[in-house]
Design brief:
With 1083 residues, the chain is mainly alpha-helical. The chain has 8 domains: 1-135, no CATH class; 370-471, Serine Threonine Protein Phosphatase 5, Tetratricopeptide repeat, CATH 1.25.40; 472-570, no CATH class; 572-653; 674-768; 773-845, no CATH class; 848-948, Serine Threonine Protein Phosphatase 5, Tetratricopeptide repeat, CATH 1.25.40; 952-1077, no CATH class. 64% of the residues lie in helices and 4% in strands. A 6-stranded mixed β-sheet has the order 5-4-6-7-8-9. It has a 3-stranded antiparallel β-sheet with strand order 1-2-3, covered by helices on one side. Strand 6, helix 57 (1044-1057) and strand 7 (1061-1064) form a beta-alpha-beta unit. Helix 28 packs antiparallel against helix 29 (524-536) and helix 54 packs across helix 56 (1016-1027). Keywords: Repeat, Signal. This is Tetratricopeptide repeat (TPR)-like superfamily protein.
Length: 1083
């Protein structure tokens, strides 16, 4: 029964195949009689009747013809099978094929399978000889291999190839080409080796196929280099097709120097060769070379085609060169191909790069024909010019008018959604992507990654990346670039490490992103390793990578290396010059920045706004203002750059950096239209001059006028709150950062942690701290300095060693915090040991800040002679901070003569420094030399030097209350002084004896004690105890160092009232509780 069913099925399908060729069929009443065929069943050469029941599958057909022909040489019939009702011979079948109305079938004998467009027809024709045991000719077999490859049936193509009794070069070529088409690049290479081993002559077709395979694989560069060797050895470079394939191969791997060598060695070049090299340079980001090639091509009389013009026009847009763009546009019009859709599309994109949106719209509206790329180009123009509504409207019209959209469409419209304001549209389009089933499209996924990173949603980007079924190099590059954008450099380098582990080939974008992640001295070693990889991979001559190397070394403080890389670059562009000038600016090398700027102008390069921003950023000293800053401001006005928003902001910053905050304010308030960047510049200027209250007022004004905050606004706000010690404002800014999605940004997170540390909230700081393996050096430094500032000196040391264990590299700031902790904690020997190891073990050069810490360390411990000797032998010139540290130590230990020397050195560099007079006066007062004290006060009056008044403040119910010495101006002054009297009485009962050496006036002891009780920190303490809950922590801030007697009072009061009191002065925190202080009475 089963056999009968199988035979029936075979007969039905046999009928279908014959019907394709109009072979004789007879039948009646729905019953079909199939003739003229050889059925491989028991019933052979007979009529077979069956009811036709679809669906019919061509692979089930069992058929072979009888007879001989060129295309189908048949074997003899089996014995006993040549009887029965024989129908028309094979000649009839062949005749049916030749006369068939379908040209694909009628031309089969002469053209083979090459023109077959329907797989079912091709398989049916193949069935004609397979089931009969006949053999196709070599020609027909070759075309059959092509056909199966075309339809994606590579296994069927390989079976045909393997069963061929005879093969020629075309057979091998077609099979290799089939493997390439299906992406089986390794199989293509293996088959080529077998072909070559059998002695077949190499030809341009197979070489071109292999080079295409190795280009697409992204990991077979060595194989491609070997093929290049064979090309040279066999003299195949004369073949333009082979030469052009080599150009494409080297271009895909970004080895442009080798591509250029091949191009110059090619004996014959056509327009495709020229265009291929242009595309290589364009893909490598070297658009200037594209233009040079275009000009040379025209000089040699080569006519441009549409692909040439498309590449050149795109390069003009990328260079933002409107004059050149309009020149090329004239050539296009002269050539008469401006109506070509691809050329028109590139013109639209070029105008978009020029921000000429109206011109782009004009070209788009006057196109005779638009394709999907036209719509995509127009959407991109709107997106790149941040016209979100227009971009979305164009997308909507495209869906209505054109109907079809693709991955590029969605990627283009997603570009404009990469901000917090437009994120809702981006999420909506993401939903559309999922609805259309395109969430597996790698191109769209890559754009979504970028969108989420740009809008500060790195967690969403990570989730999407982990879910991606397919990732290409752009996916990995997007993750690296996104992490760099958020300041997560360690995560970016981990992505690079994964790429290396997988053996993925990298391009110039990969290296540029990786180098950007190393743009901090913390990652200098990693940057040098990546530089080595750049050289090994042949990208050291790539312009974009060269620019990234100059930037990286500049930001790591290695300007000599940056300059050497700059000088060794075979070509330079304006970006290269800007990178070098920016490096000098970052390292405060004003003279070198100006000299490079002059060289730039001598090279006939026109500076742009970035050039001027970088030069302005190199001015940081008041002496630079008249010498350099103002003349450059005049140059900016003459060249018309003063209207540029970014240049104006840089001028505000420059004047502030050079000490002229008034000019910064004048420029700021003179601007009619202020952008968020302008506001940020002014906030930063005030913060730099310690005008913290003004900085906070500006932030409040920003919020009132609906100016959008960004990571820089929030970071500056946290810094202001931290330095004023206003925890509530800092908490409000932290909440705002979370609401706006900036809380995960590297700089915002670290600024928030620093704010909590400086406001005394160590628990909140520790909650925000990343896990040790994910901490940046900045995070470690904030943690270490916070513990040191709060008097947890042993914990600070432990943090330093934990930092080393986790592989983080200490820097200049790390050792300043560590040495400061040792100084305030009395850890003299440990501090000296750390200082000694700083340079020898960790390679951190000695800076003036480290020397200040060592002088303070020795001075606090009473080792004044050693401190003086250290100053004499310091590797850097001592400044007023060094002498001020020594002077403060002289006050503590009563060393008048050394104090006088320190004061004279301070006044030598800054005659109006009030601290020198005050500290030396205190030294004399402590030693009872009241005549000297009086003489110092008289000199201060004659020199018009005003002593900085001491003040203390605290925040009660979101209101700041500030007190000066003996302040009577407060509305509740009477209650405050009554509370002070009450405290004075209670602590005397506990054994308090005033230390009148801190009363720096020549009066009797009783008056000295009264003066001590007028100190601002005691007034703030009394007010705080009156107006805060009894079980709450009391936080008080003072602008000058707390006096020793007040320190004793605070300890006693904390024990009497049973409360925690935190007092912060400019040097550290004092945590008072149960009669003790966290400093251990050593500060």
């Amino acid at each position: 029964m089963a056999t009968a069913s199988a035979n029936l099925r075979n007969a039905i399908f046999f009928f279908v195949v014959l019907s394709l060729f109009n072979v004789h069929v007879c039948g009646s009443d729905g019953c079909l009689v199939v003739g003229c065929g050889y059925m491989l069943t028991q019933q052979c050469w007979c009529c077979y009747s069956a009811n036709v029941k679809p669906p019919l599958q061509p692979e089930d057909i069992c058929f072979a013809t009888k007879g001989e022909c060129e295309a189908f040489p048949c074997p003899p019939l089996p014995p006993g099978r040549d009887s029965g009702r024989q129908k028309e011979p094979i000649k009839h079948t062949i005749q049916c094929i030749v006369t068939h109305p379908d040209p694909e079938i009628s031309g089969f004998l002469h053209k083979g399978f090459s023109q077959i467009t329907k797989e079912v027809v091709g398989r049916a024709l193949h069935a004609v000889y397979v089931k009969g045991g006949t053999y196709l000719s070599v020609f027909h077999s070759n075309t059959l291999i092509n056909m199966y490859s075309k339809f994606g049936k590579i296994n069927a193509a390989k079976n045909v190839f393997d069963e061929m009794l005879e093969r020629n070069e075309a057979s091998w070529n077609n099979m290799i080409s089939g493997y390439v088409t299906m992406g089986l690049y390794v199989d293509a290479g293996r088959l080529f080796i077998e072909m070559w081993g059998r002695g077949f002559k190499l030809n341009g077709y197979v070489i071109a196929s292999l080079l295409t395979a190795f280009s697409r694989s992204e990991s077979m560069v060595l194989e491609g280099l070997q093929i290049h060797g064979l090309v040279l050895k066999n003299g195949l470079l004369y073949d333009v097709f082979v030469g052009t394939s080599l150009l494409h191969f080297y271009g895909m791997y970004g080895i442009i120097s080798s591509a250029r060598t091949v191009f110059e060695e090619m004996p014959h070049r056509n327009v495709v060769s020229w265009t291929s090299l242009m595309v290589d340079y364009s893909d490598a980001g070297d658009f200037n070379e594209v233009v040079k090639l275009y000009r040379r091509m025209r000089c040699e009389g080569i006519s441009c085609n549409q692909n040439t013009f498309t590449t050149v026009i795109s390069s003009c847009g990328a260079l933002d060169d409107e004059f050149l763009g309009h020149q090329v546009l004239g050539h296009v019009l002269k050539s008469g191909i401006e109506s070509n859709v691809s050329v028109a599309n590139s013109i639209i994109s070029m105008f978009g790069n020029f921000s000429s949106v109206e011109d782009a719209c004009y070209v788009f509206n006057h196109m005779d024909e638009r394709d999907i790329i036209s719509w995509n180009s127009m959407i991109t123009v709107f997106a790149n010019n941040w016209l979100c509504n227009e971009s979305l409207r164009c997308f909507h019209l495209m869906r209505l008018d054109h109907g079809e959209i693709n991955a590029t469409t969605l990627s283009a419209v997603l570009v404009v959604c990469g901000s917090l304001d437009n994120l809702k549209w981006g999420r909506g389009i993401h939903c559309l992507v999922v609805k259309l089933g395109w969430d597996s499209n790698v191109c769209i996924s890559n754009t979504l990654l970028t969108m989420y990173f740009q809008s500060g949603r790195h967690k969403d980007a990570e989730k999407l990346f982990n879910r991606m079924a397919e990732k290409d190099l752009i996916s990995w590059n997007s993750m690296m670039t996104g992490y760099v954008l958020e300041g997560k450099c360690l995560d970016a380098l981990k992505v690079l490490n994964e790429l290396l582990d997988m053996g993925k080939m990298m391009n110039f974008v990969t290296f540029a992103s990786a180098l950007a992640a190393c743009s901090d001295a913390e990652f200098l070693v990693e940057g040098r390793i990546i530089h080595s990889l750049v050289i090994i991979s042949g990208f050291h001559q790539n312009l974009v990578v060269g620019n990234a190397l100059v930037t990286m070394y500049g930001r790591c403080g290695m300007m000599q290396v940056a300059k050497r890389v700059f000088q060794m670059m075979p070509e330079k562009e304006l970006v290269t010059w800007n990178a070098l000038i920016g490096g000098y600016a970052d390292n405060e090398e004003c003279d070198e920045a100006l000299e490079t700027f002059k060289l730039l102008r001598q090279e006939a390069e026109s500076p742009n706004y970035i050039t001027l921003i970088n030069v302005l950023g190199s001015f940081w000293d008041p002496g630079n203002l008249l010498k350099c800053g103002m003349p450059l401001h005049a140059y900016i006005i003459l060249t018309g750059f003063e209207t540029d928003e970014y240049v104006k902001n840089s001028l505000i910053t420059m004047y502030a950096d050079c000490g002229d905050l008034n000019s910064s304010n004048h420029m700021f308030y003179g601007l009619l239209n202020k952008t968020p960047v302008t506001w940020n510049a002014m906030v930063a200027a005030n913060a730099q001059h310690s005008q913290w209250e003004e900085a906070l007022k500006l932030l409040l004004e920003m919020q009132r006028t609906k100016v959008n905050f960004d990571q820089f606004s929030l970071s500056a706000g946290h810094a202001a709150s931290a330095n004023l010690g206003i925890l509530v404002d800092g908490q409000h800014l932290h909440s705002l950062a979370i609401k706006l999605g900036f809380d995960a940004y590297h700089y915002v997170k670290n600024a928030t942690m620093d704010m909590y540390g400086k406001c005394g909230e160590m628990n909140d700081l520790l909650k925000m701290l990343p896990e040790p393996k994910r901490r940046s050096r900045l995070s470690w430094n904030i943690l270490l300095s916070s513990f040191a500032r709060h008097g947890y000196f042993q914990r600070a040391k432990d943090i330093f060693h934990e930092m080393l264990e986790q592989g983080a590299k200490p820097d200049h700031v790390t050792f300043v915090s560590l040495l400061s902790a040792c100084s305030h904690g009395g850890l003299v020997d440990e501090g000296l040991a750390y200082f000694a190891s700083m340079t020898t073990e960790f390679g951190v050069p000695v800076a003036i800040e480290h020397c200040v810490c060592i002088v303070d360390l020795l001075g606090r411990s009473g080792r004044l002679a050693e401190a003086e000797k250290f100053i004499d032998k310091m590797p850097v010139q001592p400044n007023d901070f060094v002498w001020r540290s020594l002077l403060a130590a002289c006050k503590t230990h009563g060393h008048v003569e050394l104090g006088k020397k320190a004061a004279e050195n301070i006044l030598k560099s800054n005659p109006s420094d009030d601290s020198a007079y005050v500290l030396y006066s205190n030294v004399c007062a402590t030693s009872g030399r009241w005549q000297d004290v009086q003489r110092i006060r008289v000199k201060m009056e004659s020199e018009n030097v005003k002593k900085k008044p001491a003040c203390s403040w605290l925040n009660v119910r979101n209101k700041i209350s500030m007190f000066g010495v003996g302040d009577q101006s407060h509305p509740q002054a009477e209650q405050i002084y009554i509370k002070l009297m009450e405290l004075r009485k209670k602590i005397k009962e506990e054994g308090y004896v005033p230390d009148t050496s801190y009363a720096l006036h020549d009066t009797d002891d009783e008056q000295k004690e009264d003066n001590l009780w007028n100190h601002s920190e005691r007034l703030a303490l009394a007010y705080g105890l009156i107006h805060t809950p009894e079980d709450s922590t009391l936080r008080i801030f003072k602008n000058l160092r707390v006096c020793g007697d007040c320190h004793s009072v605070y300890k006693l009061v904390s024990n009497i009232v049973r409360r925690v009191i935190i007092l912060r002065d400019p040097y550290r925190f004092h945590h008072f509780s149960s009669g003790k202080c966290s400093c251990g009475d050593y500060w």
